[in-house]
């Protein structure tokens, strides 16, 4: 008999028997009779509906599948995952955050549970002569040569999370914690709201492509509205959000049904229209326009620090920014690199999993680009993306950052249990929801103190780790102090795994792994998407230029034989290395004439009046180590004979590991 007919027949018979018994015995039997009749009605509905095939084949019983599916995340997190393999944050990390937020001891007994022989395992090198940590944790000064109001910030700060994504109580609690601890609270692109003010916290106001809080009615940037808010005493700096790690290159749309009165007031948008956040900024389209926009914001904010935040994509884009900075003589005061492992309230899974550069590669790329163009000493680097513990902070400082930003760990300090329901408006602890019933569970006073405790103890642990490494300040860190297991028998330091540029190296003598991208980078253009010949519009027919004189029609051309009237040849792949990559190499900075720019693409925009500085002009030190920023630590020299990949993101060394001795 068919499964579904058997289920219906069984329910029908049971219901009939119970009804007869209830008619005779009365009382409680009618309750069971009603229940069985309800199940029978459900079974008939399941058999006739067309949306779920499993219910048509297995009426009533098929609902168990959806019940188990709904509690799968809880079963996985509470009963199946081990202490060290949960995602996005494992149980060990969550336990550290929760314990520190409560002001408790985060120690653990019996040793590590991690496999130290696993490829990819990373560890820090301690010193045989550790030192005492400083009484006060070090801070980082943000402010370049054009900044008139620099600010000192913590090694760890609250990363950008908007009101709307977070509840009013969560934003207020984080702001209270930042005020108690004296660290920065980034507002997120959702605007500067009343919940970000009134608790004594220093703010970095984030400006996204929607320009919320400083926009005209058509969604474009409003200088007047920006100037009014940027000069508030709580606002210590401005961050221009170019892209987000969890969904780089993707805009967003907030349906009008989800726009509350508070959100509309904070973002200065109407409630009766969908709110669009474009994928890119309307205020600028090119690197040159971007740095000019930075200058405009700096003037409107009365000289406060202006920075940019992005997830690294093309290395050409990063280098194009450095060229624009040199040619316009306008630099951001800080750059925040957002890793693709960063969090978000909602993003397509394909973007979170496969789009964007992870923080390690992106951070080192930007650091290298700034060092190689002689800009690193002017621009501070921030790192955002799964920063939660003291060792995370130290690791990112070694990789090139000056400070770190944390979002999800701050959410956990506020009460987040990693339910991953941020996009449903059903956050069970009231952190990521606008539902008043759920939001009321979050006590602002208690959670504000927890954010303060978590930050204080985590930064203290980072400083203690550096003291165990024999250091008293982050500027003493270097890339030899972080090692990575590359196979089961050996480990290598970051000094030897990656290619670290010398100061001004890109300006004077770009290494092979960077030369092509440096040449292609253009201050008047983002992107490296060259038009591929075989994708051009062409009729599907045999090309006459491939018919070689002296050969029969239909024969294949021979390598090295002419294929066009211009003398082109098909190059043997074995001899490809001898073919020059370009016929127009980038000039050295010292050879630029009056009015010339770093861009190889003539005619694209007007070149600046002042050429980029020559290496011999006395503006950079002659000793290759003097020009390195103190915060970045020492960088190892490249040894003769090393080979690097042509287009790798970080130029990984393919040959033997270089020496790791101290520079100089």
Please summarize what this structure is.
This protein has helices at 3-25, 29-48, 53-57, 63-70, 72-80, 91-101, 168-181, 223-230, 261-267, 287-300, 315-328, 349-354, 359-372, 390-398, 408-414, 436-439, 444-468, 494-497, 505-508, 512-520, and strands at 122-124, 140-142, 151-153, 156-158, 184-186, 202-207, 235-241, 252-254, 275-277, 306-310, 334-338, 380-384, 403-406, 482-485, 491-493.
What is the secondary structure topology, with strand pairs?
Layout: H1 3-25, H2 29-48, H3 53-57, H4 63-70, H5 72-80, H6 91-101, E1 122-124, E2 140-142, E3 151-153, E4 156-158, H7 168-181, E5 184-186, E6 202-207, H8 223-230, E7 235-241, E8 252-254, H9 261-267, E9 275-277, H10 287-300, E10 306-310, H11 315-328, E11 334-338, H12 349-354, H13 359-372, E12 380-384, H14 390-398, E13 403-406, H15 408-414, H16 436-439, H17 444-468, E14 482-485, E15 491-493, H18 494-497, H19 505-508, H20 512-520
Parallel strand pairs: 4-13, 5-6, 6-7, 7-10, 10-11, 11-12, 12-13
Antiparallel strand pairs: 1-14, 2-3, 8-9, 14-15
Helix pairs in contact: 1-2, 6-15, 6-17, 7-17, 10-11, 11-13, 14-17
